[in-house]
Q: What sequence folds into this?
């Protein structure tokens, strides 16, 4: 209850800040990001991935007065991705590069939370963001140890998604009649609601419970391996047998040792998304929620997982800053042999920051009463931007 109250207060403050400032011009060229950059950057088919995969046939009883009738209906089974989360990664503690959320009061609040964590463990914990200056952790001849802050909010684009979703549902029902319909899947996140603010999460710096968690999920033969679950692979906990140019999901903290800053940002963003899409994690965060089981007068049936997994093409990332893109990538593709790798493809910024929209896949169909058949078909994919 206390955590919910804290988050509600944060939402109230952030909402006032956003709407009192309006939507400022995009600051993408200098590494900053604005709310309208998230809201109005269109995602193409590589992001949305809208496909009709089958139909659901259902039966229900409808009564009017004292007369009841047994009816049958059908709806389209649709698979697609939803721009659920806005993820911002930045270097300096309490210096968010999201323009609308970098008000002095809010930055001071995050700095205070961060300093309280440091005071519990001594001055040696304080990093100030960026690369760790300690010679014991990094030197000019070794890969630098970086520390990243992350903030995750419900994507502002979800408000526009709901409008498009309502229009598609109305068009399908107009064409199919009362007992034939279909719609895009409902969202899990709520626009502009904070789900993770790393300055408020002590474990993001301390890396204590994450190490305990790793000991519990690693096979006994591999206890000596400090990191596992390679960002961009299938999520298995076996040691990485091929060279990787990315990083590892665990431990899910702000510390990362990587030579390429943009890949470090991508891996850390994946860690934070991994946290907020799961219940009961050893972090201070707001779970984004389970997919809704009903919407209006319809119930919803789902297929597939709802927890973010690194490397799965069910979850793709759209670059919003430092340079926005209408296409999406699944982090983790090996680029060892490529002429240009991920970090050199026009994604660098002097501020060493990145902002992304995370598109999360859902597959669902609407129904009333009881589903009596879920028929699969050869998928029909539509070039529908969202």
A:
């Amino acid at each position: 209850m206390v955590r919910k109250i804290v988050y509600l207060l944060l939402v109230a403050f952030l909402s006032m800040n956003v709407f009192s400032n309006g939507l400022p011009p995009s600051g993408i060229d200098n590494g900053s990001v604005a709310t309208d950059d998230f809201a109005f950057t269109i995602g193409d088919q590589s992001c949305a991935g809208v496909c009709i995969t089958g139909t659901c046939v259902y039966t229900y009883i409808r009564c009017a007065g004292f007369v009841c009738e047994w009816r049958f209906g059908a709806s389209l089974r649709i698979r697609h991705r939803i721009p659920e989360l806005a993820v911002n990664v930045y270097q300096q503690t309490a210096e968010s590069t999201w323009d609308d959320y970098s008000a002095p009061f809010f930055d001071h609040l995050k700095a205070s939370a961060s300093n309280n964590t440091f005071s519990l463990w001594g001055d040696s914990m304080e990093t100030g963001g960026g690369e760790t200056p300690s010679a014991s952790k990094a030197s000019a001849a070794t890969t630098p140890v970086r520390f990243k802050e992350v903030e995750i909010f419900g994507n502002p684009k979800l408000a526009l998604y709901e409008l498009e979703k309502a229009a598609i549902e109305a068009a399908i029902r107009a064409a199919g009649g009362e007992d034939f319909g279909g719609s895009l899947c409902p969202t899990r996140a709520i626009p502009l609601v904070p789900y993770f603010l790393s300055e408020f999460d002590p474990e993001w710096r301390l890396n204590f419970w994450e190490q305990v968690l790793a000991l519990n999920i690693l096979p006994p033969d591999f206890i000596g391996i400090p990191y596992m679950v390679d960002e961009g692979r299938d999520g298995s906990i076996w040691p990485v047998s091929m060279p990787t140019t990315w990083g590892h999901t665990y431990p899910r903290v702000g510390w990362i040792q990587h030579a390429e800053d943009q890949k470090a940002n991508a891996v850390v963003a994946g860690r934070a998304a991994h946290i907020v899409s799961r219940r009961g994690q050893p972090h201070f965060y707001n779970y984004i929620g389970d997919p809704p089981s009903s919407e209006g007068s319809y119930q919803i049936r789902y297929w597939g997982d709802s927890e973010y997994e690194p490397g799965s093409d069910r979850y793709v990332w759209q670059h919003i800053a430092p340079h926005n893109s209408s296409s999406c990538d699944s982090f983790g593709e090996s680029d060892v042999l490529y002429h240009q790798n991920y970090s050199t493809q026009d994604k660098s910024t002097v501020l060493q920051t990145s902002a992304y929209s995370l598109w999360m896949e859902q597959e669902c169909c609407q129904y009333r009463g009881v589903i009596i058949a879920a028929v699969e078909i050869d998928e029909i994919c539509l070039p529908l931007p969202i």
